[in-house]
Amino acid sequence: MSAEEKIRAKAQKYIYSSDEMDLEDVIGALLSERKLTLAVAESCTGGMIAHRITNVSGSSNYFNRAFVTYSNESKIELLSVAKELIEQYGAVSREVAMAMATGAQKNAGVDIALSTTGIAGPTGGTPEKPVGLVWIGYADSNGSMAIKFNFGDHRLRFKERASQAALELLRRKLLKIENQK
Q1: Cys bridge to 131: 68, 125, 150, 155, which one at CB 3.0-4.6 A?
Q2: Which pairing describes strands 63-68 and 38-42: parallel, antiparallel, or unpaired?
Q3: Across residues 61-80, what is the average pLDDT?
Q4: How far apart are the first and last CA of the chain?
Q5: How far apart are CA 171 and CA 44, in angstroms?
């Protein structure tokens, strides 16, 4: 067995392409093959996930819409996130990330939705919710979930890493790969 084969055997679930495809291309192929539709609800990533998805030719076949819900009011109005949920847990929380994904899925009428809510920095953090914190949510017909990450205090790098993590979460869900983080 070659060194490459040994590495592939151990790291297979982490490899999304071996032919220079970007993660958004891989996601597009998976959604197309499965005839599934997608929406995204972005707060701290400000539309970066939607930007990446729509860079793929043919994305209109599976990508329905994006909600950029930066304010609490927009989360409530556009995604049906309960005001009480935001008041109890804060906009940057597991609960709100899940509600955002569920709201996007239902309001867009799609199979799957992703969401992001976090603190991109370099200001705005607290000891409980530091700069770099992001919750990435996922919803489909089976329910919703969210995963917590911290991507540091460099704003653009934070947005790039959060969008990559969201797309990787989606890839793993589509391929039924466990251990999301």
Answers
A1: 125
A2: parallel
A3: 98
A4: 29
A5: 21
Q: Give pLDDT tens digits for 119-136.
A: 999 999 999 999 999 999
Burial (Cβ within 10 Å: 0-12, 13-18, ≥19) of residue 75: buried
Burial zone of 41 (CB within 10 Å; 0-12 exposed, 13-18 middle, 19+ buried): buried
In the DSSP assignment, the letter for residue 19 is: S
Q: Give the DSSP H or E segment for 83.
A: helix 83-89
Q: How far apart are CA 29 and CA 56, in angstroms?
A: 10
Task: Report whether 77 contacts 104 (CB < 8 A).
Answer: no
Q: How many helices (H) and strands (E) does the chain have?
A: 7, 5
Dist. CA 93–CA 80, nearest whole Å: 16
**What is the extent of the structural domain holding 139?**
20-175
Q: At 31, is the secondary structure helix, strand, or coil?
A: helix
Question: Which residue matches tokens 């609960």?
Answer: 95
10 — pLDDT class (breaks 50, 70, 90): low
Indicate the number of domains in the chain.
Answer: 1
CATH number for the domain spanning 106: value is 3.90.950.20
The pLDDT, as a whole number, for residue 126 is 94
